[in-house]
């Protein structure tokens, strides 16, 4: 799977990086303008609304843009922050900053609880639950009159003494927006951000790469809620009045439209979308005298932007700017890839004891026993429907075993979730390639190298070096910074193997690695497997290509109708009468 016959390289996925110093200067300039330029109350209100709304919309770039989870309750978290600041100060005389922190904490708690209880649903079910939560919060704000003051709302909400002037308070809101935006810009390329993007692109691949998918989703939801609460708390101080109608489901839809309009994957897009959706109605105020025309133009503008700019306005602008970006210079030779866990420990790497997996009355895997010794290649073969992939899915934790046990390196992992088995030393690829297609090859493999417990986990340079070494091992170091979506099928397969190797597993599970490869790519795959085995890493492979299996595997287990019918050295198994009758038809020409 070398790059010698590859197509011309596609452009590197660019990453716009503004210098921190320039960013700080820009923010200070905006804050200065907010303070010194005379403004009418109308302009101050529009600016205050845009800034505080943008903070809440930033939360959607995390939960929706980075993690791919729908949230139609952002206005509820916005309202929790606002009411905490309003009620805390006016009813109990609590300091503004303490109220703001309490509002953010309350929003985070409710966001985490909502996420923890519903994120296993996903899709439209998650949307329905978040809508229900939004409606519940709105009803509470309206009807819990002794606390929330009901439809009348909370009035005369004070600001901190030093920020009593509206211009100074606006400058604070700008600073908070800029700080949150910068942190979220950095989050994308941090370990948590990469985990969120992996979950968004392919949850199954994320789980077997060592990512706790459920925990990652809950964190994304909680961060989104915190930003909603922060924006709402600042909104309450800015306008000195809050009421339930300001935090209804309609406002959640507005927040969602803002992030989709500007660009869901970037803080810059969130700011652009917020500004436009607040300013467009003001620009069209002169049309309100004509019934219906204002709404028609407003709606048409939003639809056209979403239709012709599917990545949002900032996504479109960034795409145009990317044309002028230069390719990153080639890096030096990658380090040699080493494996630390595959060549030490007990003689037995994997042991299956009476392993079964039933789907109702169907016994897909029925009391299967076999042992994999350390080092070399062990093949699991059998006709279609024999239970091979089901066995692999049970081994990797994607299916829960009906009965029996799985021991990895002497540790019972039968009840471990997929990410915990990866931490224990299991690596895996899939028959249908599962890569994170919005990421580069290097980013895909870095996530593999970030397996919890990895010796390079806390060293960013060592982490990247190991990922590049894994790509070099499969012959793709020259394309590390390209999007995997532009790779050929064979090269995508190589990246998936590199991702598993970068995790330094004890056992590597390969599900049909030769599927879809042409004859020359299969030769490269065979050579790659031999090189992996020569490094001492143990491999369990499933493949229908008996030529590939007979050339790389020293030991073979055969399944038929979910039961083991043969197990032993390759030459002996491939000539076993039951195997020939059930699977091969004729005995292959294998040297004894």
**Average predicted confidence as pLDDT:** 87
Rg, nearest Å = 29 Å
Number of helices, where a helix is a run of at least 4 consecutive DSSP H or I residues = 23
How far apart lie the N and C ends?
A: 30 Å
Strand order in the largest sheet = 6-7-8-3-9-10
Shape: elongated
Taking the sheet with the most strands, its summary is: 6 strands, mixed
* Oligomer category: single chain
Describe this structure in words.
- This protein has 3 domains: 235 residues, no CATH class; 156 residues, 3-Layer(aba) Sandwich (Rossmann fold), CATH 3.40.50.300; 71 residues, no CATH class.
- α8 crosses α10.
- β9 and β10 form a beta hairpin.
- By secondary structure, it is an alpha/beta fold.
List the helices and strands and how they pair.
Blueprint: H1 20-36, H2 41-66, H3 74-92, H4 96-118, H5 123-143, H6 145-148, H7 166-187, H8 191-201, H9 203-208, H10 213-239, H11 249-262, H12 267-283, H13 293-308, H14 312-322, E1 348-359, E2 362-373, E3 377-381, H15 388-395, E4 403-408, E5 411-412, H16 418-424, E6 426-428, H17 441-449, H18 460-473, H19 489-502, E7 507-511, H20 519-534, E8 538-542, H21 546-552, E9 555-560, E10 563-569, H22 570-574, H23 577-584
Parallel strand pairs: 3-8, 3-9, 6-7, 7-8
Antiparallel strand pairs: 1-2, 1-4, 4-5, 9-10
Helix pairs in contact: 1-7, 2-7, 2-8, 2-10, 2-11, 2-12, 3-4, 3-5, 3-10, 4-10, 7-10, 8-10, 11-12, 11-14, 12-14, 17-18, 17-19, 18-19
Explain briefly what this protein structure is.
With 592 residues, the protein is an alpha/beta fold. The protein has 23 helices and ten strands. α3 packs across α10, α4 runs antiparallel to α10 and α17 crosses α18.
């Amino acid at each position: 799977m070398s790059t010698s016959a590859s197509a011309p390289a596609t452009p590197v996925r660019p990453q716009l990086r503004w210098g921190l110093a320039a960013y700080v200067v820009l923010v200070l300039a905006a804050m200065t303008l907010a303070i010194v330029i005379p403004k009418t109350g109308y302009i101050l209100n529009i600016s205050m609304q845009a800034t505080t709304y943008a903070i809440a919309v930033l939360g959607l770039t995390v939960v929706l843009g980075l993690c791919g989870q729908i949230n139609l309750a952002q206005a509820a978290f916005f309202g929790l922050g606002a009411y905490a600041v309003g009620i805390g100060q006016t009813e109990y005389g609590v300091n503004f900053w303490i109220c703001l922190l309490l509002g953010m904490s309350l929003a985070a708690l409710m966001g985490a609880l909502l996420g923890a209880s519903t994120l296993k649903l996903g899709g439209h079910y998650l949307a329905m639950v978040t809508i229900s939560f939004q409606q519940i919060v709105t009803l509470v704000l309206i009807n819990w009159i002794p606390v929330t003051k009901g439809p009348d709302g909370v009035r005369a909400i004070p600001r901190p003494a030093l920020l009593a002037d509206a211009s100074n308070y606006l400058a604070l809101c700008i600073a908070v927006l800029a700080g949150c935006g910068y942190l979220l810009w950095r989050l994308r390329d941090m370990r948590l951000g990469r985990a969120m993007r992996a979950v968004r692109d392919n949850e199954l691949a994320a789980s077997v790469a060592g990512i706790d998918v459920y925990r990652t989703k809950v964190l994304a939801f909680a961060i989104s809620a915190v930003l909603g609460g922060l924006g709402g708390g600042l909104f309450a101080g800015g306008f000195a009045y809050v009421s339930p109608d300001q935090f209804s489901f309609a406002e959640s839809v507005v927040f969602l439209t803002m992030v989709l309009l500007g660009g869901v994957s970037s803080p810059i897009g969130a700011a652009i979308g917020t500004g436009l959706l607040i300013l467009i109605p003001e620009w069209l105020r002169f049309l309100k005298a004509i019934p219906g025309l204002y709404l028609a133009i407003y709606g048409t503008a939003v639809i056209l932007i979403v239709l012709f700019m599917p990545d949002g306005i900032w996504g479109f602008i960034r795409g145009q700017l990317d044309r002028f970006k230069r390719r990153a210079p080639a890096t030096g030779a990658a380090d040699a890839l080493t494996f630390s866990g595959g060549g030490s420990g007990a003689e037995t790497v994997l042991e299956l004891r009476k392993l079964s997996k039933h789907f109702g009355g169907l016994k897909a895997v029925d009391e299967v026993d076999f042992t994999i010794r350390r080092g070399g290649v062990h093949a699991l073969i059998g006709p279609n429907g024999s239970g091979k992939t089901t066995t692999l899915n049970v081994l990797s934790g994607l299916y829960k075993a009906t009965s029996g046990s799985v021991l990895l390196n002497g540790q019972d992992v039968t009840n471990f979730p997929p990410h915990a088995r990866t931490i224990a030393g299991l690596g895996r690829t899939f028959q249908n390639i599962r890569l994170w297609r919005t990421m580069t090859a290097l980013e895909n493999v870095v996530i593999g190298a970030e397996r919890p417990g990895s010796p390079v986990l806390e060293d960013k340079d060592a982490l990247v070096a190991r990922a590049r070494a894994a790509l070099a091992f499969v012959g793709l170091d020259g394309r590390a910074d390209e999007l995997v979506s532009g790779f050929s099928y064979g090269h995508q397969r190589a990246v998936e193997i590199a991702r598993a190797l970068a995790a330094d597993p004890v056992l590597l599970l390969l599900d049909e690695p030769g599927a879809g490869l042409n004859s020359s790519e299969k030769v490269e795959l065979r050579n790659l497997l031999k090189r992996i085995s020569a490094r001492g890493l143990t491999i369990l492979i499933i493949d229908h290509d008996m030529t590939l299996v007979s050339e790389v595997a020293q030991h073979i287990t055969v399944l038929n109708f979910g039961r083991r019918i043969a197990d032993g050295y390759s030459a002996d198994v491939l000539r076993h009468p039951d195997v020939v009758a059930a699977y091969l038809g004729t005995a292959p020409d294998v040297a004894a």
